[in-house]
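Comment on both lines for my students:
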Amino acid sequence: MSGADGLALAGCAAALGLIVVAIVAGRLPPFLAIVLGAGAFVGIDGMAIEKSVKAFTSGAGTIFGDVGLVIALGAMLGALMTTSGAADRVVQAMLGRVGDRAMPWAIAGCAMLVGLPLFFEVGLVVMLPIILSLSRQSGRPVMALALPALAGMTVLHALLPPHPGPLIGVSVLHADLGLTMLLGGVVAVPAVTLAGPLYARLVAPRIGAVTPPEAAASSVHAPAAGTGDAVPALWASLTILLLPVVLMLGRTLARLGLAHDGAAAGVLEAVGEPVLAMVITVIAAVVLLFWARGRGGVRLGETMEHALAPIAGLLMTIGAGGGLKGVLLAGGLAGVIGRLAAQAAVPPVLLAWGIAVCLRQAIGSATVATVTTAGLIAPLLLHPAHPDPQEALHASLLVLAIGAGSVFFCHVNDAGFWMVRGFFGLDLRQTVLSWSVLQTIVSVVGLAGAWLIWIAV
């Protein structure tokens, strides 16, 4: 190893260490911690200040353009779905005719469907009153129904674009979005099955009866559609839920099965581009869920604007992560990692998962773990901008491995841990036994699925 390689590795280690310390001990926001980490790398690697600033801003701008707009539009879509009552309409329709034995499976599927356009926290708020109501009606323990829903939303958060984590991985690794969605769907099925209904059957009796606090229960029982408003039609609600997925998958299917110079392929390629697909879906939601029902005006605009404020920190963190990636690559880390990976016996998919796990355990943020790991793993792809079919497959599998690693054993340094604990009235042991272990199952099954596809193809 040359001296320059050693400096690059030392700078990378110092950057990651400083990020962890700044977030955990210094209580700094992840955005600022990542900026400081990038500065530490620049100082040790000896990069020129002008070069490093350009690399940081270029990396941040790229990922803002690729991911930030989609996440902002997704936040608007989620707000439209919940405010109009469309999300609740789909939940009630799916669960209305389900038998008692199939209830946990139906809740898991329902959480995945409803959670497609929603952030995890919003999805949990939507599902919680349904879970509590079904628990009272059926006599089942609350956690026997809550765990399948939590598993469905966790799998979405970890493995399926257009959720932020996988979408960041797709952008940084230049993976094919549709292929990643297809592979993520394949891996999601066993992950939800094992972490949801099957694990709930095993662990719910050990957790015992829980009583969600009245404040938490009442706060999520407010009617989503507004006083006196009828919920949207089921067909309209399902159309809005599935439209972005259909558009994005259509883009990939067009690439695989249609002539590239044909009109149909051109249309599907255009409307399946993530930003345009989300714009089309948001406009369709406005038309079908509000204007067609005689609703709109000031309330519609406020709903969409208010959806953006909570994600400002997330967008800044994602941008800083893209900037850190740009600095690391400009500092020569790409060649170093590529040479070390070629000499190492660890498969790239396992390496990506392991790095994400370590960062998640130290920092407690799946987003920071994802964006940082993706930047470190990107050099392993030889031609990220124009991959051959096998490398395109590998890029998608690395996205899944990183996403799986980013949800490994959520514990006390993550806000989601305390959110689940508070909403369901759990003590610390019960939260670890339910939520932390559930996420670990999703993580391990996600890795196993990605690894098996990696070695089989």
Observations:
- Residues 3-456 form one domain.
- Confidence is low (pLDDT under 50) at residues 215-228.
- The chain has one domain: 3-456.
